[in-house]
Amino acid sequence: MTRPNILIVMMDHQRADTVLSEHPAVTPNLDKFADEAVTFTETYCPSPHCSPSRATFHSGLLPMQHGVWNNVANCYAQSTGPAEGVRLWSEDLAAAGYEMPFAGKWHVSSTETPKDRGWRELSATSVRTRTKADDWARYRETFDKGDTGEGADGKRGEGQILRPGYDTYTMYGARKGTDTDDKVAADGVKALGELARSDKPWAMFLGLHGPHDPYRVPQRFLDLYDIEKIPLPPSYADRMEDKPRIYQRMRQMRWDQLTEREIRQGVRHYWAFCSYLDDLFGQVLAALEASGEADNTLVMYCSDHGDYCGDHGMFAKGIPCFRGAYNVPMVVRFPAGVKNPGRRVDEFVSLADIGPTFLELTGIATDRSFSGRSIVPLLADKTPPDWPDEMFHMCDGVELYFTQRAVMTKEHKYVYNGFDFDELYDLRADPHEMKNLIDDPAYEQIKRDLVRRYWRFAKREGDRVLSRYITISLFPYGPQEIWRD
Predict the structure, then answer these.
(1) 3-state SS class at 218
(2) Distance between CA atoms of 316 and 172, rounded to whole angstroms?
(3) 8 phi, psi to nearest 5 deg
(4) In this structure, are residues 34 and 332 in contact, taking their beta carbons and an 8 Å threshold?
(5) In angstroms, rounded to a whole number, what is the distance separating the alpha carbons of residues 299 and 280?
(6) Are 348 and 389 a contacting pair, CB within 8 Å?
(7) E strand or H helix that includes residue 297
(8) Any idea where the domains of the chain sit in the sequence?
(9) Nearest-angstrom CA–CA distance, 53 and 347
């Protein structure tokens, strides 16, 4: 049996809805690609920021197993990389004789680089820890340049958010010239030509940095969108008065500085960023086709996490546990393994499922266990009868530390907030998560069932939220729920 090649193109901050053909984002290469692939519409990251989700992608484990809970490359990190003994699937492929070129964003560890985990580095970013000294130097530099975060003559410019004593954050704008993502795509195109001359199977990872905020893209992609036709998101009207105070604070203190037109401009620039990435993806696909390797190559388009993109009046990502930050794109083309291409699959899929999938497809046996499971049956248009009907999220904060856990089914979502009151949403009636039903007695049994589901998951995965101490045992129902009928 010929071992397949693997090409992974991972974005940073891309929402799942932007890769769907009916979405306003202009992505012609993805549209064509999806016709030849399977689109997984319900794919989720475990945490709403880079390192925990990337560590899950590369290991097949969730944060309580791989040990990465926060971004590793800054002075706030609780861990600097995967726990001792955690093996990444890239090491398995390298040991099996795969060529392993890597270009772009790493952000799995700040003490190891891709080459320590089986990859051959073409380029790698997000590998070094930013120290406190670095942060102090940056603040002094912006101060010396006159950017005190209070605006020019105390006034805010287009797309700007004032942050007195920090600096001025400019959320969007046009840019000229090339940037890191152009280089990553070029590295990939060049490597594909070289790999075609090899007699070994290969796996290549291209980690692009977009559409991460701030949203700065070439003008020609902005020209694809008419600002007058950009709508405000349906949940923009949600003032979040029934949601945790930190959610409200993030919006009121920062994003509410923007006018409704600037919110639309933010959405426009985000969509244009997706169009720019689609153009780079098209260049990579063309190079793969020219190499003659396309028929035996699994191509995966994905992202580490999403972006609120105006939902609830916010952008970027953080502790607010909304779908936009967790639902990520996953589109897979594999001529030798995809049955009935052009399909959409709405079963729950996790980034933890990717490692087991690659090992199965490459025929590499292992005796270690994973948090996820292979999606090979879904590629073959077969849904196992025991496929999960629930999805779990976990976050201990994004440089500000909070204990948050969530469980969702297709019908409901419960969010445990150890730092504030909890959340409960009826996703059928309220898909945009605008009405918190946590205190509605009509939903008490549903809440209890979702809590029970989480405790079963916590026991299975070894989550550290298990504690009986009086001041921190704040779930509405405790771990004994798992033994109730």
Answers:
(1) strand
(2) 12
(3) -110, 125
(4) no
(5) 14
(6) yes
(7) strand 297-303
(8) 5-379, 409-483
(9) 19
Rounded alpha-carbon distances, angstroms, from residue 416 to 7, 138, 320, 454: 37, 36, 11, 10
* Cβ atoms 68, 108 nearer than 8 A: yes
The pair phi, psi for residue 249, each rounded to 5°, is: -65, -40
Scanning the structure block, which residue is given the tokens 């001529």? Answer: 335
CB 97 within 8 A of CB 201: yes
User: From the CB of residue 260, how many other CB atoms can be counted at a distance below 10 Å?
Assistant: 11
Q: How far apart are CA 47 and CA 393, in angstroms?
A: 6
User: What is the DSSP-derived secondary structure letter of residue 202?
Assistant: B
**Tokens describing residue 336:** 């030798």
* Token couple for 218: 């070439």
Q: CA 440, CA 278: separation in Å to the nearest integer?
A: 44
Instruction: Evaluate if residue 128 carries a pLDDT over 90.
Output: no
pLDDT tens profile 163-194: 999 999 999 999 998 899 999 999 999 999 99
- Apex 267 CA angle, 226 and 224, nearest 5: 35
CATH class of 5-379: alpha beta
Q: How many residues does the chain have?
A: 485
Residue 433, SS3? coil
Closest by CA to 250, choosing from 262, 239, 259, is 239
Query: What span, in angstroms and rounded, lies between the C-alpha atoms of 456 and 169?
Result: 42
Q: Which two tokens stand for residue 332?
A: 């897979």
Distance CA 36, CA 337 (A): 12
Residues ≥6 apart with Cβ < 8 Å to 263: 232, 236, 255, 310, 313
| Contact call for residues 350 and 397 (beta carbons, < 8 A) | no
Say if residues 250 and 258 touch (Cβ distance below 8 Å): no
What pLDDT score does 78 carry? 85
CA atoms within 13 A on the CB side of 315: 28
Contact by Cβ (8 Å): 149, 253: no
Spell out the residues 6+ positions from residue 470 whose beta carbon is closer than 8 angstroms to its own: none
Distance, C-alpha 241 to centroid of its chain: 27
Residues 6+ apart with CB under 8 A from 393: 44, 46, 47, 48, 321, 326, 404, 405, 406, 407, 408
- Work out the end-to-end distance of the chain between its first and last CA atoms, rounded to an integer number of angstroms: 48
User: Is the backbone of residue 349 left (phi > 0), alpha (psi -120 to 50) or beta?
Assistant: beta
Token code pair at residue 257:
């500085």
pTM beyond 0.90: yes
* Model pLDDT for residues 361-399, shown as the tens digit of each residue: 999 999 999 999 999 999 999 999 999 999 999 999 888
How far is 460 from 162, CA to CA, in rounded Å? 45
| Residue of 361, 397, 374, 302 lying closest to 39 (CA atoms) | 302
Number of H helices, E strands in the chain: 13, 19
- Compute the distance between CA of residue 424 and CA of residue 247 in angstroms, rounded to an integer: 15
Q: Is the pLDDT of residue 59 over 60?
A: yes
Measured CA to CA, the distance from residue 331 to residue 34 in angstroms comes to 7
